[in-house]
Each structure stands twice: as structure tokens, then as C-alpha cells.
Amino acid sequence: MSNINLDPQQDKSNFTSISPAAEKNYGLFESLIVEKLFTKYYNINGCATCSACYDYKLQIDKREIVEVSCSGLLYGCYVLVPEGFEEKIYPEDFILVQQEESVEIAQVKLIGDLVRLKRNYLGLNGEELPKLVRKANGDDLERVRKNLVEEERAKPIFLKAIEKFKLVMKLVSIHYQFDRKKLFFFYTADGRVDFRELAKELASEFKTRIELRQIGVRDESKKIGGIGTCGREYCCITFLSNFKKITAQLASDQNLLSSMGKLSGPCGKLKCCLSFEMD
Fold first, then answer.
1. Which of the residues 13, 74, 94, 137 has the least number of beta carbons within 10 Å of its own beta carbon?
2. Model-level pTM greater than 0.85?
3. E-state strands within 36-101
């Protein structure tokens, strides 16, 4: 969400409506893609050499689901649209999402049958999902802006506090929950850190619940972002939802041991892409 202009002076209608012409064009574009995908995966045209895959259909999740991107702490990238929800949701819309007792803001990436086909391909069906509350309005976007300002204000306070308590930890990022019920500090450290006194100090400063979470170096790269040696954005940012175990055996099986010096990513670990060719 860092690349989104949240200027309060801009036209707020951009976040809540879409022109009839754009709606028509998007619907046509989506229908063409869906038709091609159904033809490919469900073998509508038949197969000249094999009949084993005729009429092969997996169970598709029929619920109304949208794919989103969120800088908050949603456990996944899919959000359930409740039955009877009257507002029409489009890509690029900002929405409020509820997961358990927390509320976060997210931006819609994909809607409709494309989401169903993608989830079908990933084998996702019937799992519990965060729920869409409503579309975001101008006041919600202003709250996001204030949260971002508070996150920046929290950085020097946190750094001063860890110096006070002589804690060896590296701050990676700070996240204020949209509803401001929690303030999260993500950090890396070589071992376990006793941060009880630090948490009390931060709680008295910010007057909210504080959570300090230790993360690994790969999670750090995922949060910070950047460009890999291939010239593309890190895989962990663009599409990887979890990290696989990457070993030197993967490089050996692909005859890449002679270039081991080039196989480490910016996080210092072996590159995740070493696993892409193994299947």
C-alpha cells in the first residue's frame, strides 16, 4: 500500500465508484480470460491422444471471494464477501476486512470467476476466510494516513528504548492496526530477547496494546522488499505465500554447485527460486 497516493485532497469517488464504460470493458476482458482458462483446464476441445481427462472437474468454491493485498496482518490474500452485500466491488477498491477481533484495510486485486479458477488451481475450497465489512471511505483513508505517521513517530522511540534496556535487536518494521487496538513491532535477533520491560515502556508511551514479534531474515526481506539479481522484484513479495526449505541438494541436483557464490539471496539464505525447477 506504500505506492498508493492517500492525498486527502484527491477525489474520493475514485475509491468508491467506477464508470459504466470501465465496468463494461472489465467484464468483457474477464469473460474472455475465463473462457480460455475453462477451455484449457476442463478440456472442452477434447484431446487427440488421451481421454483420461475428459470432463474432469474439481469442486469450485462457489462463495463470493475477492483477492486482496494488505500491509496488515491478514493470514491470507482472500476475503469473503458476505451474502447480501449490496455494494459492487471492483479491482483497486479499498475495503475494510475483519479477521477475528481485528480490522484491517486492504486493496482489491482480483474479483469474480478469475478468483474461483485461481483458488481451484491452488486447491483452496471451503476454508475460513476474513470477511469484508464495507468499502473504505475518505475518513478511513485519513485514519490510515494518521497510522502511517504514528508508525514513523514510533521508530526513534523504539530505538531509544532498546538502547536504554541494552537489548540486541534490529527493528525491521512497525505496523499500527487499522482500528488502533494494537501496535506491532517486528524485529530480528540472533537469539531470544527478554523484552518485558521494553513492552511496558512502549505501552505507557503509546497507550495501546503492544506486540513484539521476532521474525527470520527471509521474513525481513519480504517486508523490506527489493530487486533480485534476475532484475525482478523478490519472489517472496510478489507471489510466495510461504517459505520452503532450500538446501544445497537442490543446487546439486541442478548441477549448480560450481556457482554456489551466486545462489544466495539478499537475505543471506539460498534463493527460493532453486526449488522452482524441481517438479
1. 13
2. no
3. 65-69, 78-80, 94-99
